[in-house]
Amino acid sequence: MRSISAFAPGRVNLIGEHTDYNAGLSLPFALPLGTSVTLTERADDRVLVSSREAGAWSGTLADIEAGGVAGGVAGWAGYVAGVLWALGSAGHRIPGCEIELASTVPLGAGLSSSASLECAVATAVAGLLGLPLDDPGRRALAAACTRAETEYVGAPTGGLDQLAAMLGAEGEAVLIDFADHSAHRVPLHLAEAGLAILVTDTGVRHELAAGGGYADRRAECEAAAQALGIASLREAAAADVTRLAASPGGSVTTRRARHVVTENERVLAAVAATGAGDWAGLGRLLTASHASLRDDFEVTVPALDLAAATAEAHGALGARMTGGGFGGSTIALLPLDRADAVREAIDGAFAGAGLPRPAHHLVEPSGGARLG
Ligand code: ADP
Ligand code: MG
User: I need a surface site. Which of 140, 164, 210, 274 has the fewest CB within 10 A?
Assistant: First the structure.
């Protein structure tokens, strides 16, 4: 029986937060952290999954077919089953198999352990079935993984994480336009400029599938677009934001819309800044993004604000929360020789605030999903 190994990365979103479901722009890059998978074909219809982080699950291909949200496989194994289900419904013949996985992405930290897991499994299946891992093949796998998470697991995601994991590359970010789901590679040679990104996992956990604040923000953005008579906030301009203030519930929708409109502008400015090697400018955009997420979109928590502010005060060019918010991680753009000082300053600030010691990862844009 054939055995195939694969790896897919987690990601950070450099800038462009809560824009995906508003048909907007995002700029993620792949992390060196990721999920490793070994998939071994079986002669029967059984599927055995083991995760170093989560335990074991076993069932049959028929159990997986039974569907996710409506029944079938629940819990963490649903992320694996969902990928097999999505690839099966795309017309691929999925065999019984044993799947062993282990991840270096912290779970639920906003670094996309879920897409990392999905894309690793999908890449291994692609290797087993001989599906292409060229650019169109990667986009098709990203789409299947997105269906797995939204339709099978029932977690509302926009596809950013899966595109970043499948299309990411060393020294590059991925500019995603959610108006048409197009994705372009953008050079992001931080190391050559003596820079890196310090990822700080605050340890405060978000819970996307449970809805809560994330679902509220989506609804508020839809309400803002509806009040403006447009299909999505992507079509809104600064003048529209001002107009919203007069509508019922205007002050909240105004702030939500202002975040989305200004964040899309910041993504384009960030692409221009990286192209020009204007790293100080990029840092200022990260900081402005954080302020907008804190004051207008209201998805930060004190630990995120503290990590970002402390990083800036100790030599980072800019810092912001990354991921959906309500916990999770921050990123700080910094000269490599400031990394230790910033890390220590954040640890000190957290200790002073009575918060548990956070986990740090010093990263550069890294390679996307791959076999072997
Ligand atoms: P994030 O993607 O930001 O880490 P999510 O809530 O989207 O957070 O996904 C985390 C969930 O994905 C976990 O609770 C678990 O169900 C699943 N998951 C991710 N990695 C693994 C793994 N290595 N083993 C088992 N389940 C995993
Ligand atoms: Mg996730």
Answer: 210
Taking CA atoms only, the protein residue closest to ligand 1 atom 26 is 76
191-363 is a CATH 3.30.70.890 domain = yes
Q: Where are the domains of the chain?
A: 3-188, 191-363
Tell me, using a 6 A CB cutoff, whether residue 305 lines ligand 1.
Answer: no
Rounded to a whole number of angstroms, the distance between the first and last alpha carbons of the chain is 17
As given in the structure block, the two tokens for residue 51 are 């995760």
Q: Which residues contact 86 (CB under 8 A, 6 or more apart)?
A: 144, 145, 147, 148, 151, 152
CATH no. of 3-188: 3.30.230.10
211: left (phi over 0), alpha (psi -120 to 50) or beta: left
261 touches ligand 1 (CB under 6 Å): no
Strand, helix or coil for residue 253: helix
* pLDDT higher at 70 or 246: 246
Q: Classify burial at 352, counting beta carbons within 10 Å of its beta carbon; exposed 0-12, middle 13-18, buried 19 or more.
A: exposed
H-run or E-run covering 40 = strand 28-41
Cβ pair 340, 364 in contact under 8 A: no
Q: What is the pTM of this model?
A: 0.95
- Residue 210: predicted pLDDT: 47
- 286: which residues sit within 8 A by CB, 6+ positions away? 14, 15, 270, 317, 318, 319, 320, 331, 333
Say whether pLDDT at 176 is over 80: yes
